[in-house]
Amino acid sequence: MTYQQTITEAGRAIGHEPTWHGIEAESVARMRLQNRFRTGLDIARYTARIMREDMAAYDADPAHYTQSLGCWHGFIGQQKMISIKKHFASTKRRYLYLSGWMVAALRSEFGPLPDQSMHEKTSVAALIEELYTFLKQADARELGMMFRALDKARATGDEMEAKRLEHAIDTYETHVVPIIADIDAGFGNAEATYLLARKFIEAGACCIQIENQVSDEKQCGHQDGKVTVPHEDFLAKIRAVRYAFMELGVDEGLIVARTDSLGAGLTKQIAYVRQPGDIADQYNSFLDCEEVDASQLGHGDVLISRDGKLMRPRRLPSNLYQFRPGTGEDRCVLDCITALQNGADLLWIETEKPHIGQIGGMVNRIREVVPNAKLVYNNSPSFNWTLNFRQQVYDAWKAEGHDVSEYDRDRLMSADYDGTDLGIEADERIRHFQRDSSREAGIFHHLITLPTYHTTALSTDNLAREYFGGLGMLGYVKHVQRQEIRQGIACVKHQNMAGSDIGDDHKEYFAGEAALKAGGAHNTMNQFAA
C-alpha cells in the first residue's frame, strides 16, 4: 500500500467517528508505516519468505550466498543493519545470527556462563524480541526523518523533491531481516523443544538451529566432551520444531540441523534397533566394540548383538559409550542425510578448522543422496584463521614442490610473515573463503558467531588505554567522536538514535502546538547537524 493510500485508508476510519476530530489521517498513516510489523509472527512469516527466495537464488547460482554476524544485544543488531543499508543501500542476503554462546556469556542472570545450556532458556527468545524491537525502531527513525524532509519540501514548495520523497517512502526497505536463532539442543526433551520453539517463533524467528548433542551434556561445538544422541531422538526434536512453525501459521519456517559428530566421540545411549540396517543399527555400527563370548562377561557388562556375534561396547566410567576413532566424518554425513530426509531445510556441520576441501568432501557425499543439500557454516572466531590459512598455503606449496625453506610452519602466526608471499596468499584465500566455499562446498549461509563480542572487547580496550592514559579526553574525541562525524556514523546523534525525534513527532500529533518538544534550539545534538 502506498503512502497516499495509507492516508486515505486512515481518513476513512477517522471519518466514521465524529468525536475523533483531533486525529490527523496523515499522522496515523505515518505511525502505521513506522510500525509495519505488528507482531513477531508477522516478522517470522515475512522473513521466512525471504529466506526461501534466497535459497532458491543460491540453488540457481552459488554466488548468491547469504551472510550474517552474531549480535548479543538489540542495539548491536540495529547498528549492524543501519551500517549495511548505509554502505550497500540494501539489506538483501544479509541476516542476523543469534548465538547461544553469546546469550550464555552475556545475557544470563547467573552471570557469564560457558556454552553448556545452563542459561535461562527464555532469555534466547527474549533476545529475538529485543533484536526486532531495535530493528523496527531503526525503521521508525529513518522513516521519521523522511517524513520531516517531506514536510520541509512541501513548505518550501519543492514539488519535485516531495514526489521523490513519497516514492522513497513507498519503496522503503525495512531493517527487519531473517534471524537464524540457536536453540542449542532444545533445552530438554522434544516437548520442551516444541514449547521453546514456539517462543522463538512468536518473537519473530523464521529459522531455528538445533544440534544433535545431549541436552544435559551440551558443550560448545569448539570444546571437547561433546556427546551425541541417536538419530530418532534428534528427529523427534526436528519434528517438534516443525509442529511449532505450522501451529503458528509460519509454514515456510526453516530448520537448521546441526551435527557435532565430527568432534564428538561419545554417545549417551545405544540406539534401539527394530530391524537390521535401520537408522538405529547404523548409529550403533559406529560404536567401539569388541567381540566377546559368554566366558568373558564381566559383572554389569552391556552387550549388543551384531551379525550373530556378541559385542561389548566400550563404556566409560561416565557411563557414556565411545565411538570408533576416525568415524566422525561418516557419522556427520549420515546425520545430515537423515536430517534432510526428515524435515530439516539446511545443515550445519561444526568443523575444527575452515578447510574448503574437508567441508566440500562431506557435502559432495551428502549431495549424492540429497542433491540440493546446503550448509549454514560458522566462520568461527574459535579458528585461528591466520595460522590455519598460512599452514594450508605452506602445505600446498610444499606438495607442489615450492621452496618453503624460508618459512617455519610452527611460527607462521608471527608478524614477520605478514608481508611475505605466503602471508599475502593466505590473506587472499581468507578474503575469498566465503565466495569459494559457497561455490565448492555448498555453503548457502556464512555467519560469524561471536564477532561483536570480540569487537566490543577490542574497542573498549583501545579506549580505556588512551582515555585513562596520556591522551585523556583526546582518546575519546580523536578515535571515537571525530571518527563518527567523519565517517557519517548516525549514532553520533545519540538522542536521535534513541528515539528523541520520534517522541517529538508523537507529542506534536497528540498535543499540537502545545507540545513540549526536546529538539529545539538548545538541544546539544544540533552541534552535529549535517
TrEMBL record:
PANTHER family recorded: BIFUNCTIONAL GLYOXYLATE CYCLE PROTEIN, ISOCITRATE LYASE/MALATE SYNTHASE
Gene3D superfamilies with a match to the protein in the record: Phosphoenolpyruvate-binding domains (3.20.20.60)
Pfam families assigned to the protein according to its UniProt record, in alphabetical order: ICL
Protein name: Isocitrate lyase
Catalysed reactions, as listed in the record: D-threo-isocitrate = glyoxylate + succinate
Entry superkingdom: Bacteria
Record key words, sorted: Lyase
The species this protein was found in: Novosphingobium album (ex Liu et al. 2023)
Source lineage: Bacteria, Pseudomonadati, Pseudomonadota, Alphaproteobacteria, Sphingomonadales
Keyword DNA-binding assigned: no
